[in-house]
Amino acid sequence: MMERTDSAGAVGEGRSSPSAVRIFLVFLRLGCTSFGGPVAHIGYFRDAFVRRLRWLDEASFADLVALCQFLPGPASSQVGMGIGLELAGLRGAIAAFLGFTLPSAVLMGLFAYGVGAAHGPIDAGILSGLAIVAVAVVAEAVRGMARSLVTGRAGMAIALAALIAALLWPGSLAQVAILLAGGLAGYAVGGVDGADVPAAAPAAAAKGPMPPAWVGGAALGLFALLLVGLPLLAGATGAPVLRLLEGLYRAGALVFGGGHVVLPLLKESVAAAGFVPETALVAGYGAAQAMPGPLFSLAAYIGVAAALPTPWLGGALATLALFAPAFLLVVGVLPFWRALRRVAPIRQALGGVNAAVVGLLAAALYDPVFTTAIHGTRDLALAVACYGLLVVARLPAWLVVLLAAGGGWIIAG
Fold first, then answer.
1. Residues 61-69, mean pLDDT to the nearest whole number
2. What is the DSSP string of 271-309?
3. Strand 3-5 and strand 11-13: pairing?
4. What's the predicted TM-score (pTM) here?
5. How far is it, in rounded angstroms, from Cα 386 to Cα 404?
């Protein structure tokens, strides 16, 4: 399908959509260099797909981020799957998932074999530098999204209210409530700039080969079927591998608030069930903090450690089981989301939701990104330098990540 590039830089008529192979390669690079957790991942995605490659416009990207905040599962991975789905359909979603997840999953599998322990812990200074560069990446994402999405006094008021509310009431449920409140406020004022949004002006990026509605319905049906059927099948057969996969799938389907919240569920379904000792599970969780890409790659560590049926096959099956709910939800919801966001009242509400997303991202920039990474003037200076390299020198994010790792090592030394 030939498409053009509109003024916002999104894929439109007259320019061909990126292939699944290219989407995979872009996400593979992101999977190797995206340190800093889910909030930082969203910043890396925006830098790659909105600012640099210009495959999405700012509004389409913010719509996708807002949608994934409402869904259970790893939000940043779901944003990546949604980007792939928007650009190249199901093949694009699979390519995005594989590219972003593969590096950290392989590293976590190797760690389960003891390779990481054999070479000693990763230097604390390098880890500090990787956390510091996340401050620069998220700060640039907040600045860029605010310029595009927080328009007029109403938008600024919604973003500021969302920022204050998120700092006062942290947590995943509070985030959902803030987004809902932002949507209601946007609808009440007729859009964040006070003007109605015509129904004929959908997001420009919503022109890719999106699966039809029946595929979305089938994905949602499969999501529910596995959630109910896997426990029944595991109980009927008693097969250890099915019991492990059922517990991982249930954890991925019921977790709200991102990868950090999944640990309590995994303690119940993995450690308490006897597949991996709790001390080993916590050690793997700690190692996952140092990896690029999604924290859910902890599943690869669990599968290799449990060795059901074999270590590497177990790692692959466990990874698929933990991520499957997120994938099915994105594929199931996004086709309907595309149709809904074309309706004028929905677009008005989305203006408020997008302004609230900026507020939430600004709150996350302070806590946990800034508070976790910045512990003195040297750390702050490195963060400012990274920001300058990203914004002024316009170096690619992966190169800034490497420079920040070296800077953190030097500071620690």
1. 89
2. ITTTSS-HHHHHHHHHHHHTSSS-GGGHHHHHHHHHTSS
3. antiparallel
4. 0.78
5. 7
- Asked whether 308 and 273 are in contact (CB, 8 A), the reply is no
Other C-beta atoms lying within 10 Å of the C-beta of residue 209: 14
DSSP notation for 107-118: HHHHHHTTHHHH
Average pLDDT, the chain: 84
pLDDT at 193: 60
CB 82 within 8 A of CB 68: yes
Q: How many CB atoms lie within 10 A of CB 121?
A: 11
Retrieve residue 355's tokens: 């302004």
Which of 76, 72, 67, 89 has its CA nearest to residue 27?
Answer: 76
Rounded distance, CA 259 to CA 187, Å? 32
DSSP class of residue 3 equals E
Query: What distance in Å separates the CA atoms of residue 156 and residue 140, rounded to the nearest whole number?
Result: 18
Pick the residue with more confidence: 125 or 389?
389
Write the pLDDT tens digit of every residue in 318-356.
999 999 999 999 999 998 887 787 788 887 888 888 888
Q: How far is CA 135 from CA 3, 145, 147, 346, in A?
A: 35, 15, 18, 33
The CA distance from 234 to 51, in Å, is 46
Q: What is the pLDDT of residues 278-333, one digit of tens each?
A: 878 877 886 787 788 998 999 999 999 999 999 999 999 999 999 999 999 999 99
Helical H segments across 6-74, by residue range: 20-33, 38-45, 58-70
- Residue 196: DSSP 8-state: -
Rounded to 10 deg, the angle between the 311-340 and 240-254 helix axes is 30
CA-to-CA dists, residue 151 to 141, 155, 222, angstroms: 16, 5, 40
* Alpha-carbon gap, residue 321 to 249, rounded angstroms: 5
Task: Give the helix/strand (H/E) hosting 4.
Answer: strand 3-5
Which token pair is 183? Answer: 């949507």
